[in-house]
Amino acid sequence: MNLVSGLVIAGTHSGVGKTTITMGLLAALCRRGMVVQSYKAGPDYIDPAFHRLITGRPCSNLDTWLMDQETVRRLYRRAGCGAGFGVVEGVMGLFDTKPGFGPGGPGSTADLALKLGLPVVLVVDARAAAQSVAAMVHGFATLDPALRIAGVIVNRTGSGLHARMVKQAVEKSCRLPVFGCLPADVVASLPERHLGLVGPEAEHSRWQAYFQLLAEVCEACVDLDQVLAAGRPAGNFPVIGAVLPAGQGQKKVRVAIARDQAFSFYYTDALRDLTERGVEWVPFSPVAGEGLPAGITGVYLGGGYPELYLEQLAGNGRFLADLRHAERHRIPIFAEGGGYMVLCRTMQRETGPEYTLAGLVPAWCRMTDRLQGLGYLTMRVAGDTLLGSPGDLLRGHKFHYSKVTFPAATRSQEAFLLAGEDCAEGYSHYRLTASYVHMHFSAFPAVMDHLIAQCGCG
């Protein structure tokens, strides 16, 4: 099979416009009739949902801190099967990484580009600068000689003259092509809210009109032929599926998975890998009033926006009763993020009434106006959980504005202990494991095996 040709869209910093430009490029290339595969660097659920609306293909999340190199390359190649071009949207600034690492460390866009062997298109913000933009581009292009910057897209230029000044300075001083210049405020940025960009679950026609506008802007302002010519095939590594242990993948386990406006944070690659290992996903919608499907051997409640649908969730007595019944009968229940919140006794917005929920986690959940948890986590399994045995070391990430408060007596039932900190995370009891931590299962074959074994042992 031919290697997928592609490139990475990176920014000098967050807020530079790389998400808007990435979506515009995806939409413009799709309007040419191309089959385009998108990817997102780092832990993110929102951008991939928009990518999928544009391309009609699931977006693949790639993360060099959560995943080893083999997994990153496997997911890149598998997702790109059948596509003509790949576009990877970066995360934060090109070289931004975890604390304690130098520029371009694990989890950075630069590290991902190097591991995939892909060139980078650098997005720069030209507000309040002109020829000085060249100095910034020069620094990014020369910081790591192993990294190939293929060209530049200049965003938020103030006038045609301003655009020409920046373009000439970059091309003359940096010997890099400027693929295009986008005027400031030519399109409105996506609206934001506390969990990031707004979701695409509703108003599809509105989003499609927005994507078409982005496509038109990119067609008018960016040399798409130059962008395509800058793409390169990824490194020469084999296409393989998930490596299955002997005998695995034969017996199916039926796992209910909540899929609706309140529960939408799932990694497509992780669900696919679990499917290849023997999981049959049975989707249902708590927001629509549905309960757990019949004949299941496990439950997966992912993250999302349960706080926006508290009336529907609290009013779905069948769903809450089914969860309690499943827990009593030791059917495995795994919940992360929003799913963890729904398993609490009650949930409350910043103001207003408390809503009674499942009560399987003996705690109270309340939304706040401040970020309560953000970033990558390394944690040890505290006890016997659905994800592993005591002492197992795992990696994940979290991002939440809500706060879960436990009675002091339940703290011995934590799911994880954060490595290097005297801090507990989540809750585990018998065959229920819930926490704010989001896992990318593709990075942990042993965790997938353990979870499936728990769901299959009846």
What does this structure look like?
The protein has 458 residues and is α/β, with parallel strands linked by helices. It has 2 domains: 5-233, 3-Layer(aba) Sandwich (Rossmann fold); 253-456, Rossmann fold (3-Layer(aba) Sandwich), CATH 3.40.50.880. The protein has 13 helices and 24 strands. α1 (18-31) packs parallel to α2, α1 crosses α7 (204-221) and α5 runs parallel beside α6 (160-174). Mean pLDDT is 92; it is low at 193-197.
What do we call the CATH homologous superfamily of the largest domain?
P-loop containing nucleotide triphosphate hydrolases
CATH architecture annotation of the largest domain:
3-Layer(aba) Sandwich
Q: Which overall shape is indicated by the principal axes computed on the Cα atoms? A: elongated
Helices and strands: which structural class?
alpha/beta
Separate helix tally? 13
Number of folding domains? 2
What portion of residues belong to β-strands?
25-35%
The counted number of beta strands is 24
CATH class of the largest domain: Alpha Beta
Give the helix level as a range of percent. 25-40%
CATH topology of the largest domain: Rossmann fold
Mean pLDDT: 92
Give a short account of the largest sheet.
Answer: 8 strands, mixed
Termini separation: 41 Å
Low-confidence stretches: 193-197
Radius of gyration: 23 Å
